[in-house]
Amino acid sequence: MNVSSQSRPAIYFNVHLVSDSTGETLNAVMRAAVAQFDRTIPLEHNYYLVRSDRQLERVMAEIEAAPGVVWYTISDETLRRKLEQFCRQRGIQTLPVLDASIHMLSRHLGLAATERVAGQHALTEDYFQRISAIDFALAHDDGQNVSGLEDADVVILGVSRTSKTPTCVYLANRGVKAGNIPLVPGVPPPPQLFELKSPMIIGLKISIDRLLQIRGNRLRSMKADGVTDYVDQEAVRAEVTEAARLFQRNKWPVIDVSRRSVEETAAAILNKLNERRGWS
To answer: Which pTM does this prediction carry?
Structure first.
């Protein structure tokens, strides 16, 4: 007897997206593929602008800690071989997303492909703005360089596992300078946060049940199951409540990410920024 897709439990799996550029191509292809499988939920691990051995070493350590599937767009042949060999030795499936298309065009045109990184991007003012925004997001991720956040367009706040980092990177791909600050239980936000004048400050809220689910999946993917405040229901409830009170006290706009994808959260933030700027 067949089990319907609605009755079987959801399948969670790790997806590592490794790019020497902005990762837009990987994200688009991955989401299109996953949409063909009912009740499957990818746990995304995104690595952007991977262009050196040192950066790749960090990526491979993350892959080893949370095995899954690896999709990549890397032009440098040495880095490609290193990643492929690493995954092959560990039985990890890999997919070079653009290879088939590049090889087909090479055969059709009778030309060899270049190894140009981000070759699909014209070197326009818009392109350099996006790269600058990505650099800003990486430099101001997870509470880093708080003193430089005055130059941000938006500053995102939220408890752990509310997708602050991928949302900032997605916004950066749209040319928006975004930084984020984690809200950690028992640790007050940095005082510089309350002195910011230019950026829009936005809080991300999430339901307790959804947060427990995400954090539990994260621990399982890292093989670190255990009862801690990170997944204790009452501790999480207190953490979420305190964050909500902080947002309310400071009259910061709030976006509920409980059932939103990163793209939907970023779109909501863009709408708020446009409203602030007086755009229709």
So the answer is: 0.61
